[in-house]
Amino acid sequence: MDTNFLLQAIIYLSAAVICVPIAKKLGLSSILGYLLAGIIIGPFVLGFIGQEGQDIMHFAEFGVVMMLFLIGLELEPSKFWKMRKFILGMGSMQLIGTTIILFLGCLLFMDWKWETTLAISLALALSSTAIVLQTLKEKGLSNTSVGRSSFAILLFQDIAVIPILAFLPLLSTVNLEAANDAPQSLITGYASWLQTVIVIGIISTIYFAGRFLFVPLLHIIARTRLQELFTASALLLVVGVSYMMQLIGLSPALGAFMAGVVLANSEFRHELEGDIAPFKGLLLGLFFLGVGASINFQLIVDNPMFIFVFGAILTLVKFIVLFFTSRYYKKKLDQNLLLAFGLSQAGEFGFVIMSFCMQLNIIPSILANQIMAVIAMSMVATPFLLLINERIIYPNTRSQEKEIKKDNDYIDEDNPVIIAGFGHFGSTIGRLLKANKVKSTILDNDSDRIDVLRKLGFKVYYGDATRLELLKAAGCENAKLFIAAIDNPTVNLKVIETLKKHFPHLKILTRARNRIDAYELIDHKVENIYRETLYSAVNMGVDALVELGHRKYTATRQGQQFIKYDEITTRKLAEKRHDKMAYMITIKEEIELQEQLLKSDIYSQIAATNHSWDSEHLKDNLAD
User: Fold this and answer.
1) What's the pTM value of the predicted model, to 2 decimals?
2) Helices within 524-579 (DSSP H only)
3) Which domains does the chain have, with CATH numbers?
4) Is the predicted pLDDT of residue 597 greater than 70, yes or no?
5) Angle at CA 280, nearest 5°, toward 275 and 285?
6) Are 53 and 43 in contact (CB under 8 A)?
């Protein structure tokens, strides 16, 4: 066994285990922890990793390969079609805009050939899919407007890598021989037009082989019912396609992305995603660690002005293009800033394009290495920029947003019911009331949602329900019932505080996502609390009892009794929750008490021989 390999593994894992928790403790992202860990153990600090980190990068880049495969798997044609406006619109505006500005700027101020300038501009226009998606996931922003817009731009960039790599050979001024120190591949030495044809041919081969060879093969493997064999097949697919792309000098991640797209519509999509995901997380961490270790500080020391000034200009250019792209699509100011800061770095495909350009002798090796140092530094800077935005810029822009936001709609109704929040939860209530001819005044502060609801025939008013003047305009002084159904628990609680203070006569029915939210509402003396998780879970439990042979009336009664007892328990626990020991003891006692009460209720029903709602009993009654 190679003890050196084990020692290297200990170094990598120890650095990650030490630095990542420290970064999280300081309120930084885990990505920054990995990057700093790589810098510390790299050749220019402690020297535990040699060759500027390349000994880990070849292995760690497999994490990016896994990630791109998973992104490809998620790219169903239907999903792509729904997001086409953002993918094609925002993505093309960002990529083309950034490339043009960088290209013209470098032509004016740099003594580079136009072919070199264009290749560098294309490489730097791409952002880091790995950093951005991981950051969005950590901050819980993946499903927000910013998250979807970021994903759309990154997806367009990942797809654009295919034509970019196919186009680059046409820029090569060398016909057969590349530079001696440049990376070599199977197509090195062929004419530029022939290299382009080969690249397109390989990509087409991956597409057809995936559809007509690998999917049928997965059917055969699935019949064996051996999970480990299926996992091995998934890894074989990713490794095989990646190796094929590497042979012709292209990015292994690009091949994995193509394979994922091919299998996106197969019935094995979710199974493959589950098998690959555990490998992706660890290897992505190693990739970030490798990026930190691969930063060539010697190049920075030799020419710091070029690296830092060029890196700052790159970040500024991408920030401006992204900001105005987001603004064109009418995003809010805080969303514009978050999107612009998040995607303002260069990405991992920049390393790929630089290596390919050295192979084609489009860019001199020294300049290519300097550009790769700029790429790495911009990736390291991203978590810091996001932290500055989060701690300093966002609080100020948020207050400005409040000042310039859209005025509340004029409300010309005076209904007995007011509903605040008309998402999935609130709209269900509204539709039920409307079906029973109960008129309600509907408030919501999501302008996009309001536009859709109005097209569907709902009369919805725009406004912030936490503002007293809006509540008065909505008729809270004369209304009988207020339904607080806002998605955000914090905002929902602020609305209730205002109602309790200014409209004490008004009966409130409020939404709570879970028991924790309910505790806060109980503290504000709210009586009618409806927990999403409680009612949906009890309904499922009732259906499960019926499927297992229990009488429907008995199961339904048990469900109602369970809700009744659990609501009583929740109010008891709200008082005890600040004392951890007392809280745990009360939970245990209440669980035992609930079980006893439910059993007693069953016995009382048996004694009374109550069979209402049971199908056989109903049939007998109908027959009579």
Assistant:
1) 0.57
2) 532-547, 552-576
3) 3-46+54-397 (1.20.1530.20), 415-616 (3.40.50.720)
4) no
5) 155
6) yes
